[in-house]
Amino acid sequence: MAASPVLSRRRLGRATLARQSLLDASNADVVAALEATGGLQAQEPASPYIALWARLAAFEPGTLDRALAERRLVKGTLMRRTVHIVSAADYRALWSATQGPLERARRTDRRDVPDPSEVRDLRRFGADFASQPRSLPELRDAIGERDGRSADERVWWLRRVHPLVHVPDDAPWSFGRRPLLVDADAWLGPGEWPDPIGAMELLVRRYLAAFGPATIADIARWAGMTVAAVRPGVEAIDDAGDLRTYRDDAGRVLADLAGAALPDEDVPAPPRLLPMWDSAVLAHDDRTRIISDEDRARIIARNGDTLASLFVDGVVAGRWWAVVDGARTRIELEPFRRLATPDRIVLEELADRLARFVEPLEPSVYARYRRWRKDDA
């Protein structure tokens, strides 16, 4: 049996960038783009918009607004128990794969898992009371206390055992900071909830198409699950004959989809400006294909906040900040090292374009995260 080909760290980085449309901008529509990128983290409302601005050849915010309003895309708690925007077609499988089993909640969240009767009660409540959009205060008032659990704790569990999605509103980025939540079936209409293996297979396929080649530990970190939980999805792809394997420089086995893009390590990677919590930065357990261990602490704050970044030659090379000067927004670049003149010129041009993009919607986007700014001189 032939040995698996070895892929350098640099080539793995180029593969991720190619699949994330960060080598060459994509002409895909927003729904196809969301599926190709594995969904976009969205607890900060601006981030999916800026992520698509960085990836699509001609992105207008209204196209994402319309796809959300038309329910072709949906926002809800999914991978890593964080808020993502994904396609409506993928939502049920991704929710089933990442949010279903309560054993993970016991390990990850360190709270007593409700007994089966309470879980059934929470799910009935979600299906009935949240069949129309509800605010968090409305959910807390209606759910009440039970068996020593406060209303806040019961709502916390409700959002982990029952699929609730965010309802778009008239905020600048389609969503404000006080979400309205609604039962997923009520919002999306009738649809099948896949079996566990089918759900996990789709999750792994989406991941590998967006971020592979990768270890099973990488997949598990992105999903917020255990290696054992995601392994059946990898095995299902292997059984279908669609799995390819490689090794990295350290000898670790890498899984990938047959025919997925695998550009040469010398393919040029143009400078990019990416938002907070960008998928390209967060998608792997070993992130050194994208960001050095040294720079990781400058991008990922103590509480997990992942700051807006600038890329040079395919890796994180600094941060950026939106600053309001009078009536205008400018993007302030903060490279970690001296930039070559051609890279600096391209980044300054991108910064001006990004400033014009965010200015009408949120001129000081991410301003509250400047508390994490450090003097790295």
Please tell me about this protein's structure.
The chain is α+β, with helices and mostly antiparallel strands and 377 residues long. Among the domains are: 173 residues, no CATH class; 82 residues, no CATH class. Helices cover 42% and strands 15% of the residues. The chain has 16 helices and twelve strands. The strands form three sheets. Strands 1-3-2-5-6-4 form a six-stranded antiparallel β-sheet, sandwiched between helices. Helix 5 crosses helix 11, helix 7 packs across helix 9 and helix 11 crosses helix 13. The mean pLDDT is 93.
Summarize the structure.
With 377 residues, this protein is an alpha+beta fold.
Percent of residues in beta strands? 15-25%
Please identify the structural class as seen in this structure.
alpha+beta
Helix content: 40-55%
Strand order of the largest sheet: 1-3-2-5-6-4
Topology pattern, helix = H, strand = E: HHEHHEEHHHEHHEEHHHHEEEHHEEEH
Shape: globular
> Major sheet, described briefly?
6 strands, antiparallel
Number of strands: 12
Number of helices: 16
Uncertain segments: none
How many angstroms does the end-to-end distance come to? 52 Å
Mean pLDDT: 93
Rg over CA atoms, rounded to whole Å, is 21 Å
Oligomer: single chain
Layout of helices and strands:
Layout: H1 9-19, H2 30-36, E1 40-41, H3 47-55, H4 61-69, E2 73-77, E3 83-87, H5 88-99, H6 102-109, H7 116-129, E4 134-135, H8 136-143, H9 151-161, E5 164-166, E6 180-183, H10 184-188, H11 196-211, H12 216-223, H13 227-239, E7 243-247, E8 253-257, E9 272-274, H14 279-282, H15 293-299, E10 309-312, E11 315-325, E12 328-335, H16 341-358
Antiparallel strand pairs: 1-3, 2-3, 2-5, 4-6, 5-6, 7-8, 9-10, 10-11, 11-12
Helix pairs in contact: 5-11, 7-9, 8-9, 11-13, 12-13
